[in-house]
Each structure stands twice: as structure tokens, then as C-alpha cells.
Design brief:
Length: about 350
């Protein structure tokens, strides 16, 4: 039996949490490269400077991550970090910015700390980067040796981010439970995988309980209890579950379909990862004939306006138009994790069932 190491990152959530960042970073050196999205850096720069300079850290630069999580952008960060003798990287922003920062730190072998500014994905937590081509379609999964050493979630910052990101995060988080449930079906699970599966229910029930209120509070910029619960589940619950169940149980049809949809220009321009994955969950449940679960989720989807049909994603319901999407979805690594083979026809039939349900 192979040895298996579980590494879970530390995290903090609340208002003005960056004031404690120096105590965490002091163990790893002095020279800090801060990498992130332009808006995210703008929102956090003053506080990061205030607290890091107070504790005598040297900030090399606030560096834009490049706009897409690509190996080329990781390499640009690596070159900067090597030239300036960076001891660590702080990743700031959404999923693609954080995945780029994490990927660069992995290549360099230096620690990374994440500061998510939206509650959209578990990228702040996981030891994985999802890599895209420069055109924005899926390229590969870059497995990292360790997760970030600490996550700083400032609920004030996330509460004042566009609500669409929290909304899409809810969709992505819901997928975690249903995909883990199906990929582990019939398997003899290790302790960590079984623990992850048991924890995955946190990716659904609290969101149905608190999701609508959290979205309303986010629209008002209010860092409420409900909002913090959704942030924790969108970022932490999903991330911990992902690391515990192992890569072989992460992702299934919902994410496979998302990678197919990335071929469509309207998806790349107008729709978010978690939004599309949320629709993919309904497709997964239709493929697996879980109609009772669809009946449970459908009213919640409607109450928070998550997509339930192709029209919600600006996608045409035409077999020829969808053919490249279906082909890429079937070939996606996540689809291969299903306990049975899934064909293009099965994808298309499930989509048609949802179209009928929507009517």
C-alpha cells in the first residue's frame, strides 16, 4: 500500500484579516512578489503595503498575472521571481490569477499564500492549477506538490466584489458533492477519500440554506454571517474535499461538459466557470437518472437564477452546433472518471430532457 500524505492549508476569514499576514510570512523569508488580477491588486494594494512594510518585508512588485492561467504566464512570473530573489509569492484575485501564482511557486519551489478577492472557486486552497491556452480553452491540469500555506479571506473585500462571482461559486461548489458522489460509487475508499466524501455534503446543504440571503447581502456589500458561510463553503469546503478525495475522484460530467463549452465564443465572453458547471450538474443528474435530486435542486436554481437550460447560457439547441462541444466533453479527463462510459448521445439526450423540463 502506497503512503499518502494529506496537507491541509491554514485559513482565516473575517474583516481586515490582512493585518495578520506578517506573522504568517515571517517564517519564509523577507522578499515578497505579489501576483494577481489588476482589479484585485487595486483593492488590496494599500492594505498589503501597510501591513507588510510595517513588518519590514520587501515588496518586489505588484505584478499582473497576465490575464489567463497559462504556462507562459507562469514562466514570466518565475523569471521575475528569480531575477529579484523572491522568497515567496502572494497570489491575489480570482481562480485564474491564483492558479497562475500557485503554478509559478510550484515551478520555483517557493511558498505561496493566497488572498481570494471573490468567492467563486476553491483555487485559493487546492494543490492544482487549471491551465488554459492563450485563446482561453482548456489545456491541462497542473498537479502541485503542496497546497498554499495560508489563505486570507477578507469578507469585506469579497462582499464588495461583483455578486456574479459569488453566484457562480455556488454553482461550482454544488458540483463538488454530486461529482464526488458519482466518481466514488462502488469504490473501496481510503480513510482520506471517505472523509472527503462525507465532508462533501457541506458543498450543498449550507448553500441551499444560506445562498439566497448571502447573494442579497453581497449586492449590498454586507459581510454577513450568511455571506461568510457561503464564502467558506465555496472556497474551503470544496478545496479540502478536493484534496482529500484525490484527483481520481475530482470532477466528472459537469466539468467535462464545461470544458466542451469553452469552445464556444459566447461562453468564454459572457459566462463564468461555476455558472456553466452548475448547468453541468443538472446534465450529470439527468445522465444518471437522478430525477428526485433534480426536483430538489431545480427550485433552488430558479430562486437564485442559476442556469437550467441552454438559453440561459446563450447556447443554441442544435445538434450540429453542439457537436464539437459534445465531442470535447466526452474526451475530457473528468468525464473519464464516471463509473460508466458516457457518450455524445447521452450528453445530448440529457440536455434535451432539461430543455423539456424548462418548458
Amino acid at each position: 500500500m502506497k503512503s499518502f500524505t494529506v496537507q491541509l492549508p491554514n485559513y482565516i476569514i473575517g474583516k481586515n484579516v490582512l493585518q495578520g499576514i506578517g506573522k504568517v510570512l515571517q517564517h519564509y523569508g523577507n522578499r515578497v512578489l505579489i501576483v494577481g488580477g489588476k482589479q484585485a491588486l487595486g483593492k488590496t494594494k494599500d492594505e498589503l503595503e501597510k501591513y507588510l512594510l510595517k513588518d519590514n518585508f520587501h515588496i518586489i512588485e505588484f505584478m499582473w498575472y497576465g490575464g489567463e492561467c497559462t504556462y507562459k504566464n507562469m514562466e514570466a512570473i518565475c523569471q521575475k521571481a528569480v531575477a529579484e530573489n523572491a522568497d515567496m509569492i502572494i497570489g491575489v484575485g480570482g481562480g485564474k490569477a491564483l492558479d497562475t501564482a500557485k503554478g509559478a511557486s510550484e515551478k520555483l519551489g517557493i511558498p505561496v499564500i493566497t488572498v481570494p478577492t471573490i468567492g467563486a472557486t476553491c483555487a485559493a486552497v487546492t494543490s492544482l492549477s487549471i491551465v488554459y491556452s492563450e485563446h482561453g480553452d482548456f489545456d491541462s491540469l497542473f498537479q502541485l506538490s503542496t497546497p498554499p500555506i495560508h489563505i486570507f479571506m477578507d469578507s469585506n473585500v469579497i462582499a464588495n466584489a461583483p455578486v456574479k462571482y459569488l453566484w457562480a461559486g455556488i454553482g461550482d461548489t454544488i458540483a463538488k458533492y454530486y461529482e464526488v458522489d458519482i466518481t466514488t460509487r462502488g469504490k473501496r475508499l481510503s480513510h482520506s477519500a471517505r472523509m472527503g466524501k462525507e465532508l462533501s455534503i457541506m458543498c450543498v446543504d449550507p448553500l441551499i440554506e444560506y445562498g439566497k440571503k448571502a447573494l442579497e447581502d453581497c449586492k449590498r456589500g454586507e459581510a454577513s454571517f450568511e455571506l461568510e458561510q457561503v464564502i467558506l463553503n465555496n472556497i474551503i469546503s470544496t478545496g479540502i474535499v478536493a484534496m482529500l478525495v484525490g484527483q481520481e475522484n475530482n470532477g466528472a460530467v459537469a466539468h467535462g461538459l464545461f470544458y466542451g463549452f469553452t469552445l464556444l465564443e459566447e461562453i468564454e465572453k459572457n459566462h463564468l466557470h461555476g455558472e456553466v458547471v452548475a448547468y453541468g450538474v443538472l446534465v450529470l443528474l439527468m445522465i444518471d437518472n437522478q430525477m428526485q435530486v433534480v426536483d430538489k435542486l431545480y427550485p433552488f436554481y430558479k430562486s437564485v437564477n442559476l442556469p437550467t437550460c441552454l438559453k440561459d447560457l446563450d447556447v443554441i439547441n442544435d445538434r450540429n452546433y453542439l457537436e464539437p462541444v459534445l465531442k470535447k466533453a466526452v474526451e475530457a479527463p473528468d468525464t473519464a472518471k464516471m463509473p460508466y462510459s458516457v457518450t455524445e448521445e447521452m450528453f445530448f439526450e440529457a440536455i434535451q430532457k432539461l430543455e423539456i423540463l424548462g418548458r
